[in-house]
Structure prediction request, 312 residues.
Amino acid sequence: MNPSVAVIDIGSNSIKILVAQRAANDGVEVLKYRTIDTRISAGISSATPRLSEDGMTGGLEAIRALLADAAPFSPTRTVLVATSAVRDAANGPEFRERVRAATGQTIRILTGDEEANLIGRGLTCDPALATLRDFYVFDLGGGSLECLTFRDRQVTQTVSLQLGCVRLTEKFIPDPAATFSTESAQRITAHCADALARSGFEFNLPPGSVAVGTGGTVTTVRTILAARRGVGLEATASDVDLATLRSLLHELGALPLAARRQVPGLPAARADVFPTALATLIALAERGRFTSFRHSLFNLRYGLVAEALDTL
Prediction:
């Protein structure tokens, strides 16, 4: 059996594991994948973000569970990384020390640029995108939005923006249990447009260029659509168009949180931030003049796996 590696991605809204080995075609062969919705990022929008005690406890429990998932594969290397929530938290070092003391594992904190570039590397592992040369990539998480431009399959532009759906929900939604108002959507749209304009990110590829979308929001959109058709995610179209995003926001935003949590395909733990995430993707599409996002599951974790496999 080929040597394998395990990557645990400690995100703002969920913690995920990917165990993989080198495939026969020099790609990545997935052995194990799991996501645990453990929001460690509550309070991320405050002036001095701090991880809550509950968030740290839940995060550590999730990491232990995912390490146990990896154990049967005896990975040659195990890599733990953290992104926006731990990176920005004043007590992030305390959480890292708790994890080290409990598991013996050290957490690598990724900078925004490192995160964006590793997402880009992960995208190049996706066989469904093999024919794309010039394209955009947008990865929307709980704490941040990573924006990349590829030219001739090489990353030429990266920007990391504090536009994650947990962060913006805390900032702009006074009562997440209520319906998602038109005014909230307008505030989020204006904030995203301003942040993108000030970031210097240039939408400079030819009109009609593909915008690839990664992260939990686009995955959840496809999962909802799949549930409504009674099929698996893989049976849905990988292109998610702007009209679908607008329709879902109109439909789900009109529901209070309790009803939103009952929507098939929408994880209950994401129901409070999902309208904000949709509004952010819509604002991004409008700013870049995209009519759709092409979904890919090959994101940060795949980039980290590819990096780790290169060291074996």
